[in-house]
Amino acid sequence: MTTEATTSFATYEDLLAVIEPAAGGREILDPATGQVVGRAPEHTVEDLEAAINAARAAQPGWGALSHAERSGFLLRAADAVEANAEALAVLLSREQGKPLNGPNARFEVGGCAAWLRATASFELEPEVLVDDEGGRAELHHRPIGVVGAIGPWNWPMMIAVWQLAPSLRMGNTVVMKPSEYTPLSVLALAHVLNGVLPGNVLQVVSGGRDVGARLAEHPVIGKVMFTGSTATGKAIIRSSADTVKRLTLELGGNDAGIVLPDADPAAIAEGLFWGAFINTGQTCAALKRLYVHEDIYEETVAALAEVAKKMPMGHGLDENNVLGPLQNRAQYDIVANLVDAARDSGARIVTGGNPDESRPGHFYPTTLVADIDNDNPLVAQEQFGPALPIIRYSTIEEAVEKANALDVGLGASVWSSDTAAAREVASRIQAGTVWINKHGNVDPRVPFGGAKTSGYGLEFGVEGLKHLGQPQVISY
């Protein structure tokens, strides 16, 4: 298998020049300005069929390589991402809206390179299950075949790498379908990666819902990886039934955080803020409802408000900004409607909640909502934007009960000056990951997955690799 030399693109316009169709295509707009960023190809189901066939033809040769050889390709892919980091980050900022600085566009591109390197480093040896006078049994993990990856618009590049890196490492080939909102970012990333990867092991098909539906049901696809809403995840489960596909689903979350009465509000305020407002709140595992003990409730609300006031929001290419617009108008409307309903119910708007409708772009101000009931829609529904409800509680049992009351369980957090007390509370929360004194801090070495309707299957680390392989026991 041969590869082309790594190409470096000086600007995001140079990247666009190689991924835009020669004619036609669908215009993608900057969510901060409404200006055209570029044109995305409008691939069809027929284009998907061609991509799947190419990936299927390439898989045996790719799967025949050793783990070390495939890891070498991932390391070269990481180098290629870093060689094009600024062009990729600017394109991402313009298409998705997130600022260059803070935990945003440059951070995301850097995370892509780091995840590729980490995935290349994991050791996955056959596991000896039995080795005695009765015989020997070994557990191996073989390639599944062709993996279908369907990604979201909030972290389009990062989540694409979360899907493709372990898939490729395990010897599968990949056909990706990016969100219709952010196809350019994924097409550009794939172009950079394909400069060093063997031909046809990674394909991107930029199409509509019909393309995604066909990918989920296609008989050649052995596994689907999906990050997105629970409703779409359920549709994928139904579509996959006839072919009994393997699935990894990271679905909707409405993560709870519990602040224990011994916490120091001033010390935790910035951690709480970024747990909730990273990527302007558009993160599956962001802190979306915060339960604070009545003894420190007002102090915590005030400390959060002080942090919020210091975080500038605006166009992503302005180096001063760390918060950006919502990526699309539909999401803006969801957030605005939930905040308006909370205000109408008598909740207290501490800061924000007053968007400037004359301003171009989908900007919704950083909003803190206090004195709100637990059954208010802003609490009970996932807002996926820059609005955080803060709920008062009296006892730990009450807080845990409220945190567990919803049918989602992606992540959660506990905030306390006493780690032992926080761990005890964490053990009672129904979520795939519970962080202590932080929220949403994912690590490529640490498995990540949801509970309840937040999905199933694991990503990251050696366990994540195993979920991209077909287990096979050899017994003799």
Summary keywords:
6-stranded mixed β-sheet; Aldehyde Dehydrogenase, Chain A, domain 2; 476 residues; 16 helices; alpha/beta; 7-stranded mixed β-sheet; Aldehyde Dehydrogenase, Chain A, domain 1; 21% strand
Description:
This protein folds into two domains: 12-251 and 454-475, Aldehyde Dehydrogenase, Chain A, domain 1 (3-Layer(aba) Sandwich), CATH 3.40.605.10; 255-443, Aldehyde Dehydrogenase, Chain A, domain 2, CATH 3.40.309. Helices cover 39% and strands 21% of the residues. It has helices spanning 12-19, 45-64, 67-83, 85-96, 105-121, 156-169, 183-194, 209-217, 230-240, 265-277, 297-309, 329-344, 377-380, 396-403, 419-426, 461-466; strands at 26-29, 36-40, 127-132, 135-143, 146-150, 173-177, 202-204, 221-227, 246-250, 255-259, 287-293, 348-351, 367-370, 387-393, 408-409, 411-415, 433-436, 451-452, 455-456, 469-475. Strands 12-13-14-11-10-16-17 form a seven-stranded mixed beta sheet, with helices on both faces. The chain starts with 11 loop residues before the first helix and ends with a strand. 55% of the residues are buried. The model has no long low-confidence stretch (mean pLDDT 97).
